[in-house]
Amino acid sequence: MTMVGGATGLDTRQQAWAAAASVPDPEVPCVTVADLGILRSVELVDGVAVARVTPTYSGCPAVLAIELAVEAALRDAGFEARVERVVSPAWTTDWITPEGREKLRDYGIAPPQQASSSIRSLFGEIEVACPRCGSAKTERLSEFGSTACKAHWRCLACREPFDYFKCI
């Protein structure tokens, strides 16, 4: 097993996980790769920390930056590191942790609806609560937000615009 900080076995794997899990998403920096559920696993294989990452979607422009940041975080924590891209099963917004959803809301982004397999949530027939005031009286302004994974909405109660993290 790899030795880091005098720990071996599970403690070392937990250290590797913690290092990789701390990497923020470059497009939505309020959440980490672990919050988003795109960090699938971190294992020690022949002394190398191997992190497995699933892109949010096939055309995500941030995937290479994320992989490099995860590798750098592992190396900074004292590990020899490798990152593997895992594309199956495909990532879904259902993988965002409850903590990640709360971080998005606190940042002013409405988190995606649960149950991404729902036809209603996939095709925009949804009720999105305002992340600022909590009102359900909102309207979609544009299917396109500041990044490909977000849509632009407005609250009719507090009149504030906000992003909604699209259901995938």
Automatic annotation (TrEMBL):
SUPFAM superfamilies: Fe-S cluster assembly (FSCA) domain-like
Highest taxon of the lineage: Bacteria
Pfam families: FeS_assembly_P, Zn_ribbon_PaaD
Residues covered by the PaaD zinc beta ribbon domain: 120-166
All copies of domain MIP18 family-like, residue ranges: 14-83
Protein's name according to its UniProt entry: Phenylacetate-CoA oxygenase subunit PaaJ
Organism from which the protein derives: Aquibium carbonis
